[in-house]
Amino acid sequence: MWEALKTALESNGLITGFVIVGITMYVAYLISNKLTKGLIHGSAIAIVLGLVLAYFGGVYSEGTKGLADISLFAGIGLLGGSMLRDFAIVATSFGANFDEIKKAGIRGISSLFIGVGLSFIVGVIFALIFGYTDAVSIATIGAGTVTYIVGPVTGAALGASSEVIAISIAAGLVKSVLVMVGTPFIARFIGLNNPLTAMVYGGLMGTTSGVTGGLAATDVRLVPYGAVTATFYTGLGCLLCPTLLFILTDMIW
Length: 253
Fold this sequence. Notes:
78% helix, 13 helices, mainly alpha
């Protein structure tokens, strides 16, 4: 019976991947509701669980793709691959209405450029601390700190090594988790209680998953407003990091 089930799961890898992600999300939200009373959002816990599963999957298979190196879970590699990643970017962008961002005026637009610039600089600093000296690696890690989507997009465009791209993704994931978990704690100190500040916050932080998860744990009514600018942030990062910001990085290093 087990062999038949295993064959069915392996033959329908993508469906199996959706099932694994669904179970992980269910467990994450169960932990969030029962153990943390909603203090830590389920999305943040799900990301941590995903990283833990990827680690043990990599240790077990001695591979480089986490759970995807195990034949039973190979569909997760497709589910989390570049094709669906890029589809998610396009789908999210189509869901944003430019008329909405204009409501934040110059403050919302400025927050996008300030957010991308500051995140990139922080990533550059960490890249230098870890001993990277070439402009391609520095710019790729800097872009990863912008978001874990901008990092691999920039790395692929610049021809960065897989190691550097992996670091950029890790940097973006750390930022996403920190924003997601930290938003409810800092919300009352920064006045994050209305649509305008939510849009500015989304523009400054930029990580769509982190911002939406954090705002959902703070006040679910603010999620659409933060998501609007966070969505544009990702697109702006994909535009600026492989071009202008890389050129500036290359001029300095």
